[in-house]
Amino acid sequence: MTPLADFLLPFLPVSSIPPYLKSYIPGETPLSTWPVVSTALVSYLALIFGIREVMKDRPPQKLNTLFRIHNVFLSAGSLLLLLLMAEEVASVWWNAGVYDAMCADASWTEKLEFYYMINYYFKYVELLDTVFLAFKKKPLAFLHVFHHSATALLCYSQLNGKTSVSWVVISLNLSVHVIMYYYYYATAGGAKIWWKKYLTTIQIIQFVIDLFVVYFGTYQHYAATYFPHLPHIANCAGTETAALFGCGLLSSYLVLFINFYIQTYKKPVRGKKATANGAANGHAITNGNGHKMD
Q: Which 3 state secondary structure label does DSSP give 285?
């Protein structure tokens, strides 16, 4: 039922990979403790703002080749990981049904845990987005910096909490990143792509679906555990701390991205008329991660 994983497995040195790199073991797996994660994220903030200060009196760096390599790696890597997750989820779904595929303890399979780990490490690779922005002397928007650092924290919290609905949120995020990083790769090579405005729309739709799923799962857990008289199906696996943190952070994402969309595409610049595609004349358009799209 997992042909892609079965095809790739013989090419991997599985026997020589230590257990803490194949499974998530807090304290042994890299970036699996709060002190290490917080240090990594604080270092990220110090690095990007340090680069911005260093670059203040220097000309912007193009770094076009490195930027394209970075983006094609993340687009292709996201696609491969998405396909691997899709076939594993389909297998669980086929054997257990829709609800159990989302909420049962058994839906946290060894393969999915490994894929969640890879996705988590991708979040640290994605922090290089901001490093490129700093060297190019592009604005470091709050939404971009907050979203990148907080998403790494979100993935860390869900791995620790073993939230069974994680695959829904991660799959949607990977789908968006396949498109988004391809966009950056293509435009860095000079391509003109007409659908840049709709990247933010896709991200907003992503968060709406995310919130429906995580609030549904959280409700099922609390109803089954504390309020059995309320209508519910069954418990949804995962710790309460991870569930509440996920609900809160994803809610903040939706608010911030909607505000970004309104400010970027719907709010006309004073004294100027907004163009037909919603972007103000003379102003660069950014996507929801704060990258300049011009």
A: strand
**pLDDT tens, residue by residue, 148-198:** 999 999 999 999 999 999 999 999 999 999 999 999 999 999 998 888 878
Contact 36, 127 (CB under 8 A): no
For residue 128, report the phi and psi dihedrals to the nearest 5 degrees: -65, -20
Torsion sign (Cα): 24, 29, 30, 32: positive
Using one digit for the tens of pLDDT, what is the confidence trace for 11-51?
Answer: 888 788 999 999 999 999 999 999 999 999 999 999 999 99
Q: Whole-angstrom Cα distance, residue 20 to residue 26?
A: 9
Q: Compute φ and ψ for 106, nearest 5 degrees.
A: -65, -15
Cα-based distances in Å from 177 to 119, 169, 181, 198, 292: 11, 12, 6, 13, 16
Strand partners, 286: 292
Cα 25 to the chain's mean position, in Å?
Answer: 22
Q: What is the pTM of this model?
A: 0.89
Helix (H) or strand (E) holding 286: strand 285-286
148 CB-near residues (< 8 Å, 6+ apart): 44, 123, 126, 127, 129, 130, 289
Give the separation between CA 224 and CA 230, rounded to whole angstroms: 8
Over residues 238-264, the pLDDT tens digits come to 999 999 999 999 999 999 999 998 988
